[in-house]
Protein 1
Amino acid sequence: MPDFEFDVDASIAAGWERFAARLAGFLRDLVPGATFDLAVPSPGTRAGITPYIRFTAERAGGGSTPAVAPGGASATPGATAGTGSIEAEISGGGREDDPVSLRAGQLDQLAGLGWTLPDPHIEDDDDPTTAPRPRLSLPTYEATRLARLVAATIERVFGIPHPVFLHDVIDDGRPAGADGPAATERSPAVPEAAPVADDVDFRPIMITDPDQATRAVAAALSEIYHCRVEADEHDVFTVPAGCVVVFVRVHRSMPLIVFRSPLVPAVEDAGAAETEVAILNRDSLWCRYVFDGTSVYAESELVDRVFVPVNFKIHFTEISAELDDVYPDLARRVAAKQWRDLHSADDPETGEQ
């Protein structure tokens, strides 16, 4: 299938753009004094610990922190009168009385993106509940700029491949990514297999056009994830499977359902990648693994003019389980150092985040 019919990079970029747009709207609506936390279930964090970004709305001229643009420059003139500001600060997670520190590599990345880092000379015995965190503040009318910076931070610093993994920021039952189910402390996880006792699952649906197939896939995915799952403007569904994201699309020229998952976007050891892909293709029952010289991704297809929901659910659940199983070892062996540092806490021999 030609790349332009299933552009994973475009789907990822569009997902983050939608996330930023929704987050910006939410930030603009915050009343002065309001605070909310956006949980970031970052790969590699220890069980029970989830980093988060805290947003606080300040009155114009009344907040304790002046409006500061990324890089430490003063905010845009005019932001001090009649506007207010929004302060964002990042925590590595943990309890309020025992917070987890961010890693040095993450702090370097945050500084590069424009976050103001805490004073490195703060003593270790200072009160951890009041210890400063990476932060920045922008006037409320620059909520879009702040939301896009937050999106870039979540993707690059915390290694979230798509906003479909994030907790809700708008209480409408849909995730911030607007593409599929949101993650919780227990997920992203492999979706549960749908119960096979439902006769509807075995009822065949004759497919006469791609739109009908897209609706059938939407219904099946919604049942698997127990929430409403919709396709984007390109008829692509985006759903989590363990720590990876899976894109699902019905081909427009025939009832062909294509699954694609970008596993390792930055390969450091090309020789190891070629070897690992060859082994995976030898052993896999559900996916075809591809190394294009820079990245490793997995593909699978399901073709049937008669759509039987239980067949799709089984196929998708098996794909998800396989990807969740092969992903950690594959990434450790072939990924770039930055990825390994980010996910180092997944290693049982590593005791710290």
Protein 2
Amino acid sequence: MSTIPQRLENVKKLQARRWENEDHWDTLNDLLIKELDEILLIEPENTSALINIGAVYSDMGENEKALEYLKMALHLGSKDKNLFVNLAIVLVYMEKHQEEYLEYLEEAEDKTEDPLTFKAYFDPQSR
């Protein structure tokens, strides 16, 4: 049986493959959500899983849901750079005030990325 870190590594690999397989985008997102939900059933306070599921929901355009998961990771004390970047991305997409997301970007500057998390996709031209 896989450990949680191994499962998170697999999630990260699968997430990267979404961009190479855009024909299977929805299927891969469903797989990612299912795996991350299972991890969170085992470890509800796993901030890496919370950050990743937030990124996936952001990529799917479900920013309210993404924000819920990201805020949970924040309240649990995560210092992961990807958390703060993802919070900023979601707030930009939600068209929040600039001060709100700039604060998270500033916070991210001196942080380190957790190798088990990833950033949400950001395209300033897209929405």
Protein 3
Amino acid sequence: MKTTLKTDLTVADICEGFEFDKAENKGLFGWSGRLTIQPEYQRNYLYADANMETAVIDSILRGYPIGLLYFNRVGGRYEVLDGQQRITSLGRYIKNLFPIKDEGGHQQYYKSLAKNLQDLILQTPLTIYICEGTEDEIKAWFKTINIAGIALNAQEISNSVYSGSFVTLAKAEYSNSQNYRQTMWRSYVRGNLQRQEILQVALSWVVKSSEREAIDDYMSRHRHDDNIDELKNYFDGVIHWVETTFPEVYDEMCGLEWGRLYETYHGNSYDAAELKAEIEKLYEDDAVTDKRGIFEYVLGGGTEPKLLHVRFFEESVKKSAYARQKKIAEQIGKSNCPLCAQGGGRNAKKIWKYSEMDADHVEAWSRGGASTADNCQMLCKVHNRAKGNF
């Protein structure tokens, strides 16, 4: 890859003709239209979210360097290879899209700055390396960079490596804050639109895997597709299934592995009203400590209580039950494990140590038994494990 140092361009030159797309939250063009500020393989604008854009302007006003910029030459035009966050911040400020605070703590938009400060910003020279190379060389280099301390995440890297029509369309659907459909997704999918996290979820669903290799393989195969129909239809199908299966939305639904749950359970028939009643019952049960597990629990027919992280008996309750059973057992000459006492084996009269016993629900938790003192009995570990069913 060939690089050429260029030091004769100023902030005014680069920001001439600057355009910013509010819908997609990205800088588009600069340098009188010759510079594409955010190629498709670049991430969306992050500095506004990270409160860093004001630091760029403050650095300029204080005479601090803002670092090297790298442009990629593509024919007679250029793309920002490294520096799009800083350039976008400069352009946004000059366009009066955000203020900074002066030394007195007062907000100052560009248009309200003193003329000498406006000129200081515009006349600041920039240090730019112009890079020329093949697409593979440019993108291999891009993968290694870290922009202003905000490291590229896995999906942003994949977007750069497999940039093309598919990524363009996918980002327009899943990384666009103006997409009205995102309000529907937000109940079920957690992630930062700007960091491509919703797109990553959608891809993981359609490939039925969260492994990066599987996602990258899919992106590679579809890189030049002129539609994202498969991705979109699958994602929408999962969301529709969740909505119809669980008409009422609960906070704990957001971020669950709905793609996996859809693949596992969407072939089953459910009564939404019955599921709702069971969910509400479990929400009211203080023994259920993981409300997020409720949804998979009811989808699976209530056969996996471990999903709920059911809280068992308090230590004081177990010790009280043990003392009570031991006292009675010694009085009648039977084992303090009720099930051992019922049998005629060698343990029928054995007094088990506390450490050799486990607490058990007399009436199984899965059948409505509460984790209370009057529903607690101590069983030897062998019988408790054999009894099961909570």
